[in-house]
Predict the 3D structure of the following.
Amino acid sequence: MKMIPVENAVGMVLVHDMTEIIPGKYKGAAFKKGHIIKKEDIPHLLDMGKEHIFVLENRDGEIHEDEAAGRIARAAAGQGIGLTEPNEGKVNLLAKCKGLLKVNEGALFEINSMEGIVLSTLHSNRLVDVNTVVAGAKIIPLTIGEKKIISMEKICSENNPVIQVMPLLKLKAGLVTTGNELYYKRIPDKSGPVFVEKFRELGSEVIKQIFSKDDPNMIAESIKALIKAGADIVLVTGGMSVDPDDVTPTGVKKAGAQILSYGAPTMPGAMFLLSYIKNIPVLGLPACVMYNKRTIFDLVIPRLAAGERIERRDVIRFAHGGLCLGCKDCRYPNCGFGNG
């Protein structure tokens, strides 16, 4: 950093904001820290009374923070990611579609282990809307050695992509609603509308709902009928407690499903069942899904809608951040639930 006559500063980098004061009208930064001085800036600076300024000399092998931020962002961005123009040395990464944010956490750790480089993100596996800011890239100093940026780009190329948004599939969901009281219409069903709305929010649809008695064989046949009707995901609601007459897991197994997990370290949603018939997920959902604003349903379904196959280890990982506080004003996903 050195002080030089303003006329000789073209092409150099400001090391602090240049404040302009117009009495009674304006006070603010006419030129921001990190600004590269142009020839046309000289008269304005002189009018501000700046005959000498502090600048950072461009040294061989060094690149400016705007260029560095852009290169970090471009290297880390995968599918479904757009970039903003540099602003105050930072480039934001935006979701180009509604989908599931995926972050390579190992690569992210490597990148941020490089002194002077910053790449911060939202949590992985979060559902995001179009134009959501999912990450920000910048450097700490005003300039940085290009060799360091090249090393960062190598990390990204070896772990491609570091950040991506996976678009959601249009799922065709089938519902099996169990319970003698519902089958015989002793009480009205309240689960169907809940699931119709939840799938609608994801751009998917419920194609059919079948009511079944508390009979494992009938549950199994209902599951098979929904798959035959074209369902690519089946939800079985009710009968997921530990009562002896809750036969849903038996019915799921009789349908030919491989049960990967019965029980999940989440609250609400502990009685969740995960299974597959070939590549079709068959989920057993506890009653909490109907009554709680957010449950394990909201953690699992977006990942399935993004085309992922959920395994038992994924369910176990829900334990960290798997406790919903049931806030009066729900802020999900802007909270800790599911963000372990």
